[in-house]
Amino acid sequence: METQKIKTAVVVLNWNGKAWLEKFLPTLVKHSQEATVFVADNASTDDSISFVKDNFPTVKVIINATNGGYAKGYNDALKHIDAEYFVLINSDIEVTKGWLPPIINLMDSDKQIAACQPKMLDYNNKTKFEYAGASGGFIDNLGYPFCRGRIFDDLEQDNGQYNDAIEVFWATGACLFVRAVHYNEVGGLDEDFFAHQEEIDLCWRMKNKGYKIMIEPKSVVYHVGGGTLNVGSPFKTHLNFRNNLYMLFKNLPASSLFTAIPMRLVLDGVAALTFLNKEKGLQHVMAIAKAHFAFYFEIPKLMAKRQKIKQKNTLTGKVNYSILFKNKIKGIKWFTEL
Fold first, then answer.
1. Does 307 score more than 80 pLDDT?
2. I need a labelling partner for 193 at 20 to 30 A (CA). Which of 68, 72, 202, 322 fits?
3. Of the ranges 27-36, 227-236, 267-276, which is most confident?
């Protein structure tokens, strides 16, 4: 496939997602005139790609040979695109008029900005922040991610309280603007993650390189969430717990590594017990156990990855307290209370 030299490539990763493409691709195409829109297909077995080709002649299609998940899917697809900026966007997102220029203009103004995200609101409740990214991502001293507008499952109303563009720790993979040269410099997404938290790992590696991650709330999108794996999926639980351990082992400085990992092993055990009262509780417990064994098995490989990263102690957006303690023990639900 010939490469295309363009400024902004908006890339939708699709896997058997015709229903989402029918619902949201028309709006995406309409409001993305400043960019070239791609659909990268992860070996779908439905007719989603014939639907795109028949109905959206301006949308370019890339066919991946296998379903390698979010990480490999994007890595494979982006090799065929020569652009200054990649915009990785989920198929279950509704964009708004003028969503692209605020972020592209911000990134154009500072070459140290490696990645950025828009403000992400809930498609089904458009006055509330959405779980996946809200208004920019942070991380605590034990590797628990949270956002301006979302701490664990507590979601805030959007009253304009987080409308300033600031440097954060991570930008959501549901709608991730990334400078192609920096994406390639750090080796792209880690394909061993398959899906979930791979964008936080990517941002962390960029931060360790000295680059900035930003949120620009002048750009707004609405996310359905759970379009591929719903929140009750044990496989999703497995990926979240396993990938978080992968990410910590790779990116934490040695001074933090040997305290954070043992603490997380204990806290993950506590989390497993809380799943017992939920639907498919035992399956979730087994998913967490499997996540830990997968982590132990991968330590030699993770060590090799770790040696390629120059870990930093102080990074903007990484806080020195436990968000778990503040939320579960002190009862803090809103970012403004931290």
1. yes
2. 322
3. 27-36
The b-or-e profile of 42-61 (16+ CB within 10 A means b, else e) is bebeeebbebbeeebeebbb
Rounded Cα distance between 73 and 81, Å, is 13
Question: How far is 206 from 48, CA to CA, in rounded Å?
Answer: 34
Model confidence band, residue 1 (pLDDT cutoffs 50, 70, 90): very low
What pTM did the predictor assign? Answer: 0.95
Q: What phi and psi, each to the nearest 5 degrees, are found at residue 6?
A: -140, 165
CA distances in angstroms from 262 to 250, 256, 323, listed in the order given? 15, 11, 17
Of 152, 142, 160, the residue nearest 263 (C-alpha): 142
Helix ranges (H only) for 209-253 are 234-251
Q: Which two tokens stand for residue 253?
A: 């400085």
Q: What percent of the chain shows pLDDT beyond 90?
A: 92
Sketch out the chain's domains with CATH numbers: 8-223 (3.90.550.10), 234-309 (no CATH)
Q: Which two tokens stand for residue 44?
A: 């779908």
In one letter, which amino acid is 322?
Answer: S
**Mean residue pLDDT across the chain:** 95
Q: What is the DSSP letter of 251?
A: H
Q: What's the token pair of residue 9?
A: 């490539």
The CB-based long-range contact list for 300-309 (8 Å cut-off, 24+ gap) reads 301/192, 302/246, 302/249, 302/250, 303/249, 305/190, 305/250, 306/249, 306/250, 306/251, 309/205, 309/208, 309/250, 309/251
